[in-house]
Amino acid sequence: MTDQPLSESALHRHFDRRGRDLPRRVLLPPGDDMAMLSLESSDRLLVAADQVVIGRHVRADEAPAAIGRKAVLRNLSDVAAMAARPIAILATATLSPDRDQGWAEALHAGLHETGHAFDAPLIGGDLATHALPGTPDVISVTILARPGGDDHRVVTRHGASAGDLLAVTGRLGGSLADDGRGRHLDFPPRIEEAIALSTILRQDLVSMMDVSDGVARDAARLATADGVGVRLDADRIPRNRGCDWRAAIGDGEDYELLFACRREPPGEIDGVPVTVIGRFESTPGTSGRVLVDVDGASIEVDGLGWEHAGDPTDRTG
33: which DSSP letter? Predict the structure, then answer.
């Protein structure tokens, strides 16, 4: 990085140079008023957006390339949740005026290189600066995707019913290290695993999402979508080292797949474990309730997890 003053014109020239290695389906790369893509046979386009607010989602002193990478990975995880494949991304950034050129270029490198690695080229966006120095930077990524399986099916959050199994990929908990770093900065979006699950289970894969706010809160969302509840088995919840069952379902930012299915899923996909952790059940009048069976007791836990509109305390220190 350099300490050259931030210049929008210089950054546009930099973006143009970096955008010359994009896939052939990018007919107009960054530099025009809009980008243009050549789409394939699928006539359905999926669109999502997510953002990273510095000081909220990452440490204020985090490396800019790591910030850009996380901003893209969060969106790729949303693509995985729909059993889809990414096509391209756009990114907008509102930066503090005390950022320099080198910092902005490193941020762009994290966005550009991460998108490129997952065949989701960065094709455009926008840059602005705050009026006051020291104002938190905001990086927003919009992602375009298409259905990923041969049948062009899109898996949504809707469909779970009483008796369906609740399962998860990978292991859970401990995404945020004590120093504010950890796995939340660099994780594998489960794109291939999601498409494989859709291919194997077909219509028996009834709903799915990615775990961003913790299994307790996200399982409640799957349940609420269809007016049922969920009962988890604490002994079956796969945990990362050093995590108890509460951390495993409450820490959040695991970015694993959480899904409802009507039959037993495969025990692993390409070395990634798949674990049934509970079952949906009928709960009249208490749609979305999440219970955990532990040591002979049933504990209600749907309040665990990350709530974006709750305590504004800096999650990342």
Answer: S
Computed on alpha carbons and rounded to an integer, the radius of gyration of the chain in Å comes to 20
Q: Are residues 104 and 212 in the same domain?
A: no
Q: Could you list the pLDDT tens digit for every one of the 317 residues in the chain?
A: 556 776 655 665 676 676 667 787 777 676 555 566 777 665 678 888 899 999 888 998 999 999 999 999 999 999 999 999 999 999 999 999 999 999 999 999 999 999 999 999 999 999 999 999 889 999 999 999 988 988 888 898 889 999 999 999 999 999 988 777 788 899 999 999 999 999 999 999 999 999 998 999 999 889 886 789 999 999 999 999 999 999 999 998 999 999 999 999 999 999 999 999 999 998 777 788 899 999 989 999 867 876 654 443 344 43
Render 98-156 in DSSP notation, one character per residue. Answer: T-BHHHHHHHHHHHHHHHHHTT--EEEEEEEE-SSTTPPPEEEEEEEEEE-STT-----
Q: Looking at the structure, tell me whether residues 24 and 125 fall in a common domain.
A: yes
Q: Is residue 2 part of a domain?
A: no
Residues spanned by the domain of 71: 8-147
Length of the chain: 317
Residue 131, Cβ density class (10 Å: 0-12 exposed, 13-18 middle, ≥19 buried): exposed
User: From CA 236, how far away is CA 24, in angstroms rounded?
Assistant: 46
Q: In 146-263, which residue ranges form alpha helices assigned H by DSSP?
A: 191-201, 215-224, 245-250
The model carries a pTM of 0.85
Please check whether residues 211 and 104 belong to one and the same domain: no
